[in-house]
Structures are given as structure tokens and as C-alpha cells.
Amino acid sequence: MKSLSWAVLGMISACCGAYVPDKIDIYTEHFPPYQFLGDRGEVVGRATMMVKLLMVQAQIDYQIHVLPWYRAVQQANESNTALLYSLARSTEREQHYQWIMPLCELKVGFYQRSGSVKPVPHYSLNNLKHYIIGVGTGQPSEQFLQSEGFDKSNLVSLSNLNQAGGLLEKGRIDFLFGAQSFVEQMAQAMGTEHTWKMVLNVPKLSAQLYLAAHKNAPKSYVEKLKEAAQNVQSAHLNRITTCHNSQYIQ
What SUPFAM superfamilies has UniProt attached to this entry (predicted)? Predict the structure, then answer.
């Protein structure tokens, strides 16, 4: 049924020359301060602001859904007009999406609670394999650790990375591996910003987070979004922030 719907949309686009939906669904996850639910239940945040400006510029009605990341990805894949943010752009994902607009830059690293374990003069991926690491499940960060030889004996996969903060404080994990922006925001919320520190940055995982469209999204629809994105970026260039200067991720 899904493939039939896409075929119909393709026929409409081919016949009419330009297909743009009246209303679309946009999916994301809780990732403050870039996207989160505000006091009134509306989706707010710095990345969300950019997405909303884009939709106003494109003159397309929309609804933003905040879901766990796995579900957000699955839901976005169900419709070829749905959008997804904030998605880290990578070589593995390049062909699976159409990349509409960059939102911010992401840095990822290992965090330790001061005094929780005996410090090592120089941390590396190899010596960190001797410790228990908390990481978000299904994230590129988890996949990266697995590709580097980390396994179930030293990885604690968490569907909600916020849980890792409590585990780190209780000594249930030795290190937390995640986006600098998200971890530092979480530490601030927990009042632990002076006791948590990044001990190893992983430049290989640095990436830009994007608003992305389905790989089979109608061509005219994508062109309209990209044109609107150029206008938004030109008018609001100074508002495109970098994650490591303020704030997760994914």
C-alpha cells in the first residue's frame, strides 16, 4: 500500500509538473536545547526554530512529533513527504536521505565523574575498553564503539541517554559517551557540571546535524524546501549555532 501511494504521488508530480503537499509530518527526538517540549507543550529549541522558519518560508503547513529516536526514524520512513531532524550526516546515511538544511555541528566524547575511577594520564579508545561505558542505543555513537571493539561486556546501551546521568552519579557506569552539548546540558540540569568532564574527544564522530527528507520525496517538493532553506540561511546565518558552543543527539 505504501509503495502504491508513492507511485500515485509520482504520477501526480509527473502530470502536474510540481507536487507539494498541503501538510507534512516532521519527526525528531528530545534533544535540548535544540528540540524539546516547552512549558505550553509546544516543540521549541534552536534547531526547531530553524525548521519552523523554513516551513514558513516554504509556505507548507506541518506538525512536529517528538518521539524516541528509533520511532522517529521509523515514522519518518513511512511517508515520502515526512521530514526528520536533527540527523547526523554521515557517509553511511548519505544515500538514504535528501539533505535539506544544516542545523548545528555535533561533537562527541567520553565523560567521567571526577573521583569515580582512578584517572589515567592519557585516555584512548583502547584503555577505555577496560571500563563500563554508557551510550545511547541505536545511535551512531553506539555503532562507532561496537566497530572499535567495545561489546556487551563493557557497554550499557540506554534507550534514554538521560538515564546515564544517574548511573554515572551512582557509579554504575564509569564513563558516559555522548554529544558534548547534550551531556553538558544534562549535567547543568542535574547540578553536576563542575564534577563531570570530557576526558576524550572523538573527532571522527563530529558531524553536522541536518533536517532531512525521505530519499523518495517528490523532486519538486525537495526543490521547494531547498530553495526555502537557502533563504532562511541567508537571512539568519548568525542564528545557526554549533552544538559544542552551547548545549544530543543524536
Answer: Periplasmic binding protein-like II
How many helices (H) and strands (E) the chain has is answered by 8, 12
Predicted TM-score (pTM) of this structure: 0.64
Q: What type of residue sits at position 10?
A: G
Comparing C-alpha atoms, which of 107, 58, 95, 37 is closest to residue 212? 95
CA distance 218 to 210: 19
Start-end of CATH 3.40.190.10 domains in the chain: 2-106+207-245, 108-205
CB atoms within 10 A of CB 85: 26
CATH number (3.40.140.10, 3.30.420.100, 3.40.190.10, 2.40.50.1070) of 2-106+207-245 reads 3.40.190.10
The torsion defined by the Cα of 67, 70, 71 and 75, in degrees rounded to 10, comes to 120
Return all residues near 166 (Cβ < 8 A) that are at least 6 apart: none
Amino acid making up residue 115: G
Mean pLDDT, 10 residues at a time, the chain of 250 residues: 52 57 95 85 92 96 95 96 93 94 89 84 93 88 93 89 86 92 86 92 88 97 97 70 40
User: CB within 8 A of 224, min separation 6: which ones?
Assistant: 18, 20, 58, 60
